[in-house]
Amino acid sequence: MIDENHLFPAEPTQRQIARELYRHAKDLPLISPHGHVDPVLLADDQPFPDPARLFVVPDHYVTRMLASQGIPPARLGVPSIDGSAVETDGRAIWRLLAENWKLFRGTPSRLWTEKVLSDVFGLTGPLNAATADDVYDELSARLAEPEFRPRALFTRFNIEVLATTESPLDELHAHAKLAADGWGGPGGRVITTFRPDNLVDPDWPGWAERVARLGELTGLDVGTYPGFLNALRSRRAAFIEAGATSSDHGHLTAATLLLSDADAAVLYRKALGGGATAADAEAFRAHMLVEFAKMSLEDGLVMQLHPGSVRNHNEALYQRHGRDVGGDIPSATDYVHALKPLLDAYGTDPRLRIVLYTLDETVFTRELAPLAGGYPSLYLGAPWWFLDSPEGLRRFRETATETAGFYNTSGFVDDTRAFCSIPARHDVARRIDAGFLARLVAEHRLPLDEAAETIADLAYHLPKRVFRLEKNS
Amino acid sequence: MIDENHLFPAEPTQRQIARELYRHAKDLPLISPHGHVDPVLLADDQPFPDPARLFVVPDHYVTRMLASQGIPPARLGVPSIDGSAVETDGRAIWRLLAENWKLFRGTPSRLWTEKVLSDVFGLTGPLNAATADDVYDELSARLAEPEFRPRALFTRFNIEVLATTESPLDELHAHAKLAADGWGGPGGRVITTFRPDNLVDPDWPGWAERVARLGELTGLDVGTYPGFLNALRSRRAAFIEAGATSSDHGHLTAATLLLSDADAAVLYRKALGGGATAADAEAFRAHMLVEFAKMSLEDGLVMQLHPGSVRNHNEALYQRHGRDVGGDIPSATDYVHALKPLLDAYGTDPRLRIVLYTLDETVFTRELAPLAGGYPSLYLGAPWWFLDSPEGLRRFRETATETAGFYNTSGFVDDTRAFCSIPARHDVARRIDAGFLARLVAEHRLPLDEAAETIADLAYHLPKRVFRLEKNS
Amino acid sequence: MIDENHLFPAEPTQRQIARELYRHAKDLPLISPHGHVDPVLLADDQPFPDPARLFVVPDHYVTRMLASQGIPPARLGVPSIDGSAVETDGRAIWRLLAENWKLFRGTPSRLWTEKVLSDVFGLTGPLNAATADDVYDELSARLAEPEFRPRALFTRFNIEVLATTESPLDELHAHAKLAADGWGGPGGRVITTFRPDNLVDPDWPGWAERVARLGELTGLDVGTYPGFLNALRSRRAAFIEAGATSSDHGHLTAATLLLSDADAAVLYRKALGGGATAADAEAFRAHMLVEFAKMSLEDGLVMQLHPGSVRNHNEALYQRHGRDVGGDIPSATDYVHALKPLLDAYGTDPRLRIVLYTLDETVFTRELAPLAGGYPSLYLGAPWWFLDSPEGLRRFRETATETAGFYNTSGFVDDTRAFCSIPARHDVARRIDAGFLARLVAEHRLPLDEAAETIADLAYHLPKRVFRLEKNS
Questions:
Q1: Which InterPro entries match (chains A, B, C) (predicted)?
Q2: Which of B290, B450, C25, C339 could form a disulfide with C459 if both were Cys (CB 3.0 to 4.6 A apart)?
C-alpha cells in the first residue's frame, strides 16, 4: 500500500503544505499529450494479456535493468528478430522479475509498478520470490474481469485525452474505429500524433521504400521534392482528421537548416538515389524540421522535438531484438546553436509552437529555460525518459523555473507505452510539483493561494493550452 | 511584506541557525564591484522617471519573460532601433506587467521586485491587475520625493562602493563630476570598470571606426599595433584615475592565445583592413586577453572574465530593438583548455588576479572550482545572470565549495543596471549563504562561530579584498 | 570531537532513520579496492614520519588549496624536481597549515583531517595557529608508539582488503614481502592493481625506454607488437600472483578503438620509432583499452577506467614539482561515443567487467547511469577525486540511482594515498548513503528493512562482489 505522503518532503511544514497543494491537483483529469500506447488496445478493447506481457516484456525500463545484471532479454520474453528462442512462459518471466525486484530499489520502475499493483489492481503485499506466484495469479484473475478492459480503465483513470504516436505510413485504422465508437477524432478522447522520423531520415534502413509507400498511400508523386512535401502535408491533414494536434520529431541532434527549395530538391534526389553522405542526411533532417515548422504555421500542429538519443547503442541487443528495447543511450545535446536557423526564420511567429525535450539535463538552466523564457514559440517539455522520475522531475523545477517560470513549461508528459502506469506517472509528477511548490511557500517565496493555482495549472490547464487540446474533453 | 524568514530553509533547526548567521551579514555595507548602473544617474542625481521606466523598460529579465508569453517588447516601451513605434505610456506598460505578474512566479524578478516595492518604497499589498493603478500612483509619488533621489537611496542602501562599467571610449564625464562632488575617483564611492570588448572584437560592426576614435581620444597613433596597445594603456590609466580597480571582458569563449608581437601586428593590420576571418577575429580576441593580463601585471587591474553568452541570439529582437534587450542565450563553455595559454604564462604570478564567471553551471565542480582551488591568480566569481537567483546561488555553494572552499570565491556581484534592486539582490545572496552555512552547521560540518565569520567574509571582507577595494570606503 | 550525527540530515525524522541505517554499515570491514597507498608502508611497517609528512606534504588536496591562496608548494615541503629549495622543517609546514585552516572550511580535507585527528589520534581540540605546536607535539608522540605503526592501524581500521596501484614495471618486492608475512598475495589483505598507463601512452616522456625495460623485466622481445602484448600478459600474471583482481586505466579520454593486429603493429612500430602523431598516440591508447579488455576476458581482471583528467595543467607547478602534486584539472568527458567500439565487441560478454569513473558529474544521469543500467559488463564507480566529498557523494546517489539502481554501482572507493584517512573517507560515504536512503524511507519510497539491507550491500557486499574480492578476507 502506498502511503498518502508518498514522495512529499519529510520536513513537517513542507509536507503539510504539499498535502494541501496536492489536494488541488489530485483529482483533475489526466492530460496525456504524448505517449506510445498502442491505439489498437483501445480500439479493440480486448483484455490485457498475462501479467508478464503487461509489466515486463514491453517495458524497456524493466528489461534493461534486468539485462544489466546478466538476465538476457530473451529470458524475459523480449521478441527476437534473428529467430533465436525467447521465453514464452509468462509465469517464468514474472518470477524472474520478482526474484530480482531488489535491483529496482530507488528507481521509478519500482514506484510505478507498486502503485499500479496497489492502486489499479488492489494488491497489498510486497513483491518478491515468495509472493511471485500469488501476485501473478491475482493479477491474472483481475485482468480477466471486464472492469480491467482498456476502455474501462481509461474511464477509471480519469483520462481526458490521450495522444498516441504514429508514423505517417500508419493508415490510422485503429483511430478510425475509435472515432466511429465516439472515442476518437478531433476533440476526442484518443487522438494521434504525427511522427515522420522514418520518412525524413535517409540513414534509416529502408527509407526509400517507405517514401515509395508514402506515395502509394497518398496517391501523390513522391519522385520529386515538392511532391514529397505535398504527400507529407496530405498525411498531416489525415492525422488532423484523426484528432492530432501535434507532431513529434526524434532526431539525434536538434540541428535545423534552411535550404532553398532547389538545394533541398537536389539533396532529396541524391538521398533517394542512395548517394547521400552522412552530412547530407543530417542536412536533410535539419532542413525538414524547418519544413515541418512551416507546415505548422499553416495547419497548427504543435511541434515536439525529442533530440539527443543515440539509438541502438547496444549493438548485440539491436542485432538480436531490434529497436526500442532499451538499447538507446542519451548524449550531450546542443540547442542554442542548433535551433538558431529555425528560430531566426520563425521563432517569434505567433502561430509557431515548439515543445523542447531533452535527455541532457545540463541544458535546463543553460539553454532550454533561457530559450523558452525568451521566444514566444518555445515551451519546455517535461523531463523525458531516464529523467521522468522523482529526482529528475524535482531537479527540472529547481533548474528551469527561475529562468522560464512555470508558464513556459508544458506540463507533464508520460511518454509511455505502459497504459496501466499512466495514472501512477502523473501522480508522481503532481506530488513532486506539490513538494517543490511547498518549498517555495515554506521559504516565503510564493503565497499559498498562488501555489495552489499554479499546481492546478501545471497538472491540467497548461498542457491543454500548450498542446492545443482545448477542444478535447 | 517580505517575511523575516524569507529564503531560509524551512526545517526549524537550520532556520534558527540561518537567522543567527544572517544577523552577522545583514547590516554590513554593500560592496558592488561589478554592475551596469548608469553613472549619470548618480552624477546628476535627478529623480527617477516613472515606475515603468524604472522597473520594466530597461530590465530584460522582465521584458524577455513577457515576450516569451507573446507580449512584444514594443508594447513594453523597449526603444526600437528600426523606427517602429513603441508604447510610451508608462501606466499602460505598468498595467501589462501587473496583469501578467503570475508569469514571474518562482523567478528572481518576482523576489527582487517585491522586495523593492516593500523595502524601498514601503508598499504592503500585492501586485495584480486590480492594484496596478494604485501601485503605480504610489510609486510615482514616492519617486518625486527627495529621499528617493539616487544619492539619497545610495546612502540609505548602505552601499560602500559601486562600480559601473564603461567602454574605453567613454570620456568618463559622469565619473569626473562624481569625483568633483566627493563621490568618485580612486577610493571613492562610485568607480568605473574598464570594459574593452568593443575595441578588441573585429567581428563587432563598426570596430575600425571605434579604433579610430580611440586614437583621437588618446592622441596616439592606433595605425600600428604597438600604438593600439599604448592607446589602451592610456585609457586604463584614465580609468584608474576614475577609480577603476578592475577590467571586464565579455567574449563568447574563454579562449586565450599568446601571439608574438609580430604575429599580433599582422593580425591587427589584417583586421583593420577588414580582411579578418572568423578564426582571425577569435585569435585576436584570445590574444588580447593575454595582453590585458600583461597590462594587469603592471597596473594592477583585476581582470573579470564573462564568457559564454551567445549575444543577440534572437534575430528578430536584435533587428528591431538592438543589443542588450534580453536576446542573449548561454552556451556550453570550456575553461580548462581555453585558459591554459594564459595560465601557462602568468597563472602563478602573484600580481595577476582573474575573476571567472560562467553562464554554464556544469563547470562549477568540473572546471572553475578546480582551477580557482589550484591557481593563486584565479577566483571564482558569483553566479552570473540567469544563475543569480536563490536556486542558482545555492547550487553554486553546493558545487563549488568542496573544491574551491569559500576563500577562492569573490563574494556576490549584482551585475545589475537596476539601481533600486541592488539591496534586494545582495540580501538574497546573504540569505542563501546563511541557509547554506546553516546546513553545514546543522550537519556538524562547521562550528557556528566559524560559519558566522565566514558569512561576514563572504558578504563584505572578501569582495573588498578580491577586487582590490580596500582603499574604498 | 566529531558529533555522532555528523553529516546526517538535520531534519529529525530523516536523521533518526539515517542513524538507524548507519548502524547497519558502521562496523562492517572496510573494502578498499582502489587506492594509492605505498605498499612499502605496510611491507616495512615502520613508524610514520612527522605530522607534516603525514598530513600535508603528500596530500595534493591540501597543498593545492594552500597554493591557491599564495603559499607556494615549496614552503609546504613538496619535493622539487628542478633542484630548487623546499621547506624541510615539519613543524614550520604544520604551522602553515594550522594558520590557514580556515581556507578548508566546507571542504572534505577539513572533514577527513579532523576525523583522523579525533578518531585515530584522540585529539579533542581545534586546529589553529594557537594550537598548532601542541597538536604537532601530540601527533608526533602518538606516531612514535607501536599502536600507530601501519599494520597496527590497518587492523584497528578494520580493513579487510586494500589494493595498491603499481606500474607493470614495478617488481612488486613490497607485495612479495607482504605475502611472505601472510599479508599479501591472492586473497590477501594487501593486494596490487595493474596500472599500465605509462606503457601504453606514447605521448608520455620516456615511453620507449619504459617499453624496453618491460622487455628486460619479462625477458620477452618487445620489439614486435605481439611480443609487447605477451610481455603485458606476463606482467598481468605476475600481478595476479601478487593478489591483483583489477587493472586501472587513466587516459585523458575514454576513447576505445578496434584495430586489426596488422594496423596495431604498424602503429606500435611507428610509436617506438618516435614518429607517432598525437592522433596516432590517441589511437594506440584507445586500441590498447580494447586489448586489455580482451586480456580481461581470459584472466578475469576487472577493468577500472579513470578518464577525464587533464594532467599537469599547471605548467609552473609541473616544471618545479613534477606529476601528481595537484596540477591536474578535470575536463568534459564523453563516454557514450567513446566506449561504443569496445562495447560493440565485448559489452555483453559475461566475462567482462568494467568500472567507470568520472570527474565530470554531468555524465552521471546522461551517460554513465544509462550505460551501467543497460550493459551487463558495466558498473558505475564511486565519485572520484574532487567529487569524493559529502555533496559529491550525495549528488551521485541522487543522479545515478533512478536509472542505474544501487546494484550497478561499485561501492565506495577511497582512491587515496593518505593511509590514515581511509576510515574517515569510508565513514563519510556510509553516512551520506545513510542520509540518502533515509530520505527515500522518509518519503515512503523504500521500506526501512530494504534500506538497511541496501546500505550493508553498498558498504561491504557489493564492492567485494564487483571487484572479485570474494576470496579476500
A1: Metal_Hydrolase, Uronate_isomerase
A2: C25
Q: Is the pLDDT of residue B2 over 90?
A: no
A-facing residues of C in 400-429 (CB < 8 A) are: 401-408
- Could you list the beta-strand ranges (E) of C372-415: 378-380
Could you tell me if A375 lies within 8 Å of chain B, comparing CB atoms?
yes
Task: Name all domains of chain B by residue range, CATH numbers in brackets.
Answer: 12-48+149-466 (3.20.20.140), 49-148 (1.10.2020.10)
Q: Do C392 and B378 touch (CB under 8 A)?
A: no
pLDDT at B473 over 70: no
Cross-chain residue pair B366–C330, CB shorter than 8 Å: yes
| Predicted confidence (pLDDT) per residue in C358-384, tens digit | 999 999 999 999 999 999 999 999 999
Let me know: does B199 contact B205? Beta carbons within 8 Å: no
Largest distance between two CA atoms of chain C: 67
Partners of residue C386 in chain B, C-beta under 8 Å: 365, 369-370, 402-403
Phi-psi group of C182: left, alpha or beta (phi > 0 → left; psi -120 to 50 → alpha; rest → beta): left
Write a three-state SS string for C403-452: HHCCCCECCCCCCCCCHHHHHHHHHHHHHHHHHHHHHHHHCCCCCHHHHH
User: Distance (Å, rounded) from C-alpha B201 to C-alpha C389?
Assistant: 41
**pLDDT over threshold 90, residue C411:** yes
- Judged against a pLDDT cut of 80, whether residue B472 lies above it is answered with no
All residues at 6 or more sequence positions from B235 whose CB lies less than 8 Å from its CB, including other chains = B168, B194, B196, B214, B217, B218
Distance CA B281, CA B268 (A): 9
Query: Could you tell me the CA-to-CA distances from A238 to A42, A182, A201, A300, A472 in Å, in that order?
Result: 20, 18, 21, 14, 18
| Complex-level ipTM | 0.97
Are A445 and B106 within 8 A, CB to CB? Answer: yes
pLDDT tens-digit map of C205-252: 999 999 999 999 999 999 999 999 999 999 999 999 999 999 999 999
**Which cell is A21 given?**
497543494
Cβ atoms of A429 and A412 within 8 Å: the answer is: yes
Residue of B165, B167, B149 whose CA lies nearest to B157:
B149
Using CA atoms, how far apart are residues C104 and A351, in angstroms rounded to an integer?
Answer: 55
